[in-house]
Amino acid sequence: MSATVPTPAATVPITAESTSRFVDAGEVRVHYHEAGSGPVLLCIHGGAPGAYGWGNFGANVPGLAEHFRVLVVDLPGYGRSDKPQISGGRYAFYAKVFADMLAALEINSAHILGMATGGAAAMMLAIEHPQVVDNLVLVSSAGGLPLFTPMPSEGQKVIQSYYGGEGPSRAKMRSYLEMMMYDASSITEELVEERYRASIEPEFMTGAPDGRGAQNRPATEQVWRDVDRIRARTLVVWGRDNRVQGYDNALFLLNRIPDVQVHLYGRTGLWVPFERVEEFNALLVGFLCPS
User: Which UniProt keywords apply (predicted)?
Assistant: First the structure.
């Protein structure tokens, strides 16, 4: 095992810098953030240009760290994690890395939270490595099956076009964020700049599955075919106004995952944890820590 030694959380403010850690998960060096104590909650972010763990879940970490030992990962290919070539299915690769990561940290099992691409990875983890999954939370998850949303969706077209034409720009990033969220007033210049800068990092553009290089787009499995094999107690969370993954995906998962409940928010897009920070944290705590 090779991992950085965490600093006691009680003496250090919870920031991206103070919580930053690395661990060798098999052959992949994974960057993650750690805060809090208690039951382990592993948070897996979504894909798309400029995505990384703290960017997706940073606003939630202080509140969740009051109840859990929170681990927020950068997917392989994103953020500060290694950017390996992925052979075989993308989601199975991620699932194996996270199973190896938990083993390296000597964690037998954890609650798993996955959003968008991270949701498909979380489902694959529950399917192929069920022994490491206590409870499962899926937010705007990929890997399901849309019942009536046209494919590719409006949001998927925006994502796919980000590096096309004249290439990435701050205007394109703002358009993407406005598409992803219901209330555009929460999109600050700082947020646009942060995501834009992450999207043009040379290693991201050449090494991430959602970067510019088409050769880096590994196959994505049809996870929906096997979701009936998920035995973990599961919470599915969606925004009604999600223009990337329509809420009909949530209804499909409701019908296929054996032990499941669904929570839908109106006036909410894909990024539920950011758009409804306090409500989402309370929902998560209530589901994972029932009194």
Answer: Hydrolase
C-alpha–C-alpha distance, residues 18 and 44, integer Å: 19
**Amino acid present at 89:** G
Structure tokens at 68: 């859990």
pTM: 0.95
Give the max Cα distance, the chain.
54
Q: How far apart are CA 142 and CA 46, in angstroms?
A: 9
Compute mean pLDDT per 10 residues along the chain, 291 residues long, and list them: 50 92 98 98 96 98 98 97 93 98 98 98 98 98 96 93 93 96 96 97 89 73 98 98 97 98 98 98 96 75
As assigned by CATH, the class of the 9-150+220-288 domain is: alpha beta
Tell me which residue of 237, 227, 238, 246 sits closest to 146, measured CA to CA: 246
Residue 169 φ/ψ, nearest 5 degrees: -155, 165
Say if residue 62 is preceded by a cis peptide, omega within 30 of 0: no
Length of the chain measured in residues: 291
Q: Any idea where the domains of the chain sit in the sequence?
A: 9-150+220-288
